[in-house]
Every structure is written in C-alpha cells, then in structure tokens.
Amino acid sequence: MDLLYFAWVREAVGTGHERIDLPDDVATITALLDWLAARDARYASAFADRTRLRAAIDQRFVGLDASLAGAREVAIFPPVTGG
C-alpha cells in the first residue's frame, strides 16, 4: 500500500510518501494511525491529535473509521480550508 502525507503531517513524519505492507490486523484508518504511531516518536507526535487529521482512500475522502479493505493508496492530511 502507498501512504501519502501532506502539509504539516509530511513535515512531522519526515516524508511525503512511503510504501508499506500492512499487518493483517490493521483494518481501518484508525488502526493504521495507531500502527504507524507505534513506529517512532515522529509518527506518534503527528498522529496524536486525530481531530487534526483527515484521510482519503484511493483519492476519496473517508472518515477515520473507514475500512482499508482493497485500498491501494491512503493519504493523511490536515483539514482542508479555503476561500
């Protein structure tokens, strides 16, 4: 699976893209964030406040409780604002 990070999330984790093999027990975005946060302090810090995060699976906005079944790409980013 490809993971994409944008804006301050990218800065916090130190990369904009990585390819990972998920463990079988990681089935939702929330579980993915938990698994990533356990990797090291950078990820733990970036994903500590879930209210500051949004996600997309295969370029479709989803909630953090969304299933990862069949996902090829997951993007993690801060809320989008604009005018």
The helix content is 25-40%
In total, the number of strands is 5
User: What is the first-to-last residue Cα distance?
Assistant: 33 Å
Provide a count of the helices: 3
Biggest pleated-sheet summary: 5 strands, mixed
% residues in beta strands: 15-25%
The unreliable regions are none
How would you describe what is shown here?
It is a single chain. The protein is of the alpha+beta class and 83 residues long. It contains 3 helices and 5 strands. Helices cover 27% and strands 23% of the residues. A 5-stranded mixed sheet has the order 2-1-5-3-4. The chain is globular and about 25 Å long. The termini are far apart.
Brief overview, please?
With 83 residues, this protein is an alpha+beta fold. It contains three helices and five strands, in the order E-H-E-H-H-E-E-E.
What topology does this entry show?
Blueprint: E1 2-5, H1 7-13, E2 17-19, H2 29-37, H3 41-46, E3 54-57, E4 60-62, E5 73-77
Parallel strand pairs: 1-5
Antiparallel strand pairs: 1-2, 3-4, 3-5
List keywords for this structure.
globular; alpha+beta; 83 residues; single chain
